[in-house]
Amino acid sequence: MVIRTALTGLTALAVAAPSGFLAPIEWGRSPLTVDALPRVVYTAHRGGALEVPENSMAGLLAAYERGTAQVIDFDTRMLRDGTLVVMHDETLDRTTYASGPVRLMDRAGWHGVLLRPAAALPGRWRPERAPTVEEVLDRFGGRIMLMLEAKDPGSVRELAGLIRARGLTRSVFVNSNSPAVARRAHRLGLLTQLWRSKAQMRTDRPERWRPYVDVLDVDHKARDRDLLRAVNSGIPRVWAHTVTTARQRDRVLRLGCNGVITDAPGLLARTPVKRLTRTPAPWLTRTPGKRLARTPAKRPARTPAKRSRR
User: Fold this and answer.
1) Model's pTM, two decimal places?
2) pLDDT tens readout for residues 135-145
3) What's the angle, vertex CA 237, arms to CA 136 and CA 173, rounded to 5?
4) Which of 46, 79, 231, 282 could form a disulfide with 54 if both were Cys (CB 3.0 to 4.6 A apart)?
5) DSSP tag of 92
């Protein structure tokens, strides 16, 4: 497929990045790590795709500055020359002014790709250059926890190299739908995350992944019994995706999940967790969206939750 770029009114932006595109964000004395996460974690999925342009530098920066999530998620793909870039889809068609497969591009071509903000997003957003993984790691790595999904399983070793070179092995989760990829990432010394669909969770036995999975990423649409099996698997963090409403969040927290991955972190941060009919566990009452402290937080005790009758 031939890759083409629509440049109507946008030519200048293709060669000049937005102001401050790579301006550094100051670290503290040391990189922020997984040990600093609170007991209940909010992750901004693709930066918060209902609130900001997904997988864009401006969107990720907005998620960081708003402080409504403690983890920022983005997707990664590999170009034909091995360059790792930030993009969810296999093609450029949906989110950019270009078309064609991402994998056919090289680094030089990538620098001419402009992201197209969705018209339904709140606020005003301008087209901007699509970032590389290196740029995102350099801008945000160590300042907030990051979660990256390796869309290309063969890219894990290259991702590990970028993460290790920056001293971020305890600051970045590497996500995949494949247990084999999660095992490989673990052996490379990375924090691993394994996501599972509603259908997969019906037959999963998540306790098998406990030796090498740091976050089990579960579908909030799954049955109560499947969510409870994940919560009781012994994997320390069970976070539910992709949550967009307070009601969805409250259900998965009630069932024992200790994090949500959301397209609407701002909405959830300003909507209190609904009071439960029974006395809630103390960790459910924490205020989401609070900027991370740099001291380790104790992990919540895992006790089986009663099945919802709703």
Assistant:
1) 0.84
2) 999 999 999 99
3) 20
4) 46
5) S
